[in-house]
Amino acid sequence: MERTDFNNTIKHLDSKWPHTGAIFFDDCGCGDAKDRTAKYLPNGMSVVEYLYRTLKYVCKDVVVVGNAASIPDELSHLKQISINFDRVGPIGGLEALLSSGLDSEYLITPSEVGLVDSKLYQLLTQPHIQSPAILASPQVSPGENKPFPQSIEIIDYPQIGRYSTDSLMSLREQIIGQNFCMHRLAQRLDAVKLIIPEDLTYALASSDSPHEHDVLCNLN
Known about the structure:
By secondary structure, this protein is of the alpha/beta class.
């Protein structure tokens, strides 16, 4: 599995990525969206609306994945993709998305990533990157010095990634085999790992944490 490190440099994209972004909600194993809509930024915008606008800044279009009851009112105007496989987690949401026929390629994100920065998504949509690709981050404790780069553990985030319809057959085979792990799917697809610059690691925090919600408010 190839790893790409941008050395803390993210190129600005002059135009939107010409494919679809997708937000996964709670029946895809991505937390409780209804609770998150109760959280608001100082400007009155809900956290989930902030996530949608951030993704829309990068992608030509945005859809939501999850059955109707899980979609917050703020995003009810968006096209909704209902899942086909119950209780299999995010891999079921990805199967529904890739089989929807809406596009040939998608950028996916869970709804609970409340601190997200558009630059995080732009890592995945750079022209030279090909699907499948996922985000990854070095796991280093504060103050810890690793003498060798290869000794640093890399944490994968396959739920924030770029996937094409070419992955659909392998994905379905994995579901039929009762293996619902997104990490296993990324390995099976030999997904490219994009290492997140240190100054963007905050964007992987969950908005479900009261502390992280406070940080999000301070950012806006």
